[in-house]
Design a protein that fits this description.
The protein is α+β, with helices and mostly antiparallel strands and 212 residues long. The chain is built from one helix and nine strands; from the N terminus they run αβββββββββ. The strands form two sheets. The chain has a five-stranded antiparallel beta sheet. The protein has a four-stranded antiparallel beta sheet with strand order 7-6-8-9, covered by helices on one side.
């Protein structure tokens, strides 16, 4: 009967090396899968936020109303739409259950805390200004953003060339296009949301709410 013998040092080292290689490969596969899942999950959340931005902000801008500012000399042809790079105020109807009446004064603003807030209230167009009167409500459209910037494309005055601008003052037209550019907290830039208001020139509305 042959006497049994143990493993040699070389054999032990070979086995340990193979086990280490297997652990390394399996761990790498798990880590890669986790990263892929995390990336896909982040992309899904970002897509959901983009769709939400279009539903809330895009739909309101598409229905922006070209109401005339009132009771200010020389401003009878100026429409209620004011925009800067981080704040935008305009008039539009709100969804059922959220409005104060037929239409509201809406303000979109990017805060220092990284939120995009939507504030709305009763339209006040007196004294050549657009403000929200009475009770105001606020809803957060986006959170955790590094930057949100607005741009406006169109003619600021009669006879002017259409061009992009970082601001929009009350004039004879609403912008032809409004761009909303978002940079997420991780620095990723979203595809810009560009919205065309359905009506850009004054119709029968004059800001009184009675259609006169």
């Amino acid at each position: 009967m042959m006497p049994s013998r143990g493993f040699t040092l070389v054999e032990m080292l070979v086995v340990l090396a193979l086990l280490g290689l297997i652990v390394l490969l399996v761990g790498g596969a798990i880590s890669s899968g986790a990263r892929s899942w995390g990336t896909a999950h982040s992309r899904a959340l970002a897509m959901e936020d983009m769709l939400g931005l279009d539903r809330v902000v895009g739909d309101r801008l598409r229905q922006a109303l070209p109401l005339r500012l009132r009771n200010a000399p020389g401003m009878d042809r100026r429409l209620a739409f004011i925009g800067t790079e981080d704040t935008m105020t305009f008039v539009a109807p709100m969804p059922d259950g959220l409005d104060f009446g037929s239409y509201s004064a809406l303000t979109l603003q990017h805060t220092e805390e990284g939120r995009l807030d939507l504030t709305w209230g009763t339209v006040d167009l007196q004294d050549g200004a657009l403000t929200a009167a009475g009770e105001r409500r606020v809803v957060t459209v986006l959170e955790g953003t590094r930057a949100v910037a607005f741009r406006y494309f169109g003619r600021a005055t009669l006879g002017a060339e259409r061009q992009w601008s970082p601001s929009w003052s009350p004039g004879p037209f609403l912008p032809d296009l409004v761009e909303v550019a978002v940079v997420a907290a991780d620095g990723a830039a979203w595809p810009p949301l560009r919205v065309r208001p359905r009506v850009t020139a004054p119709t029968f509305l004059d800001g009184t709410g009675d259609g006169s």
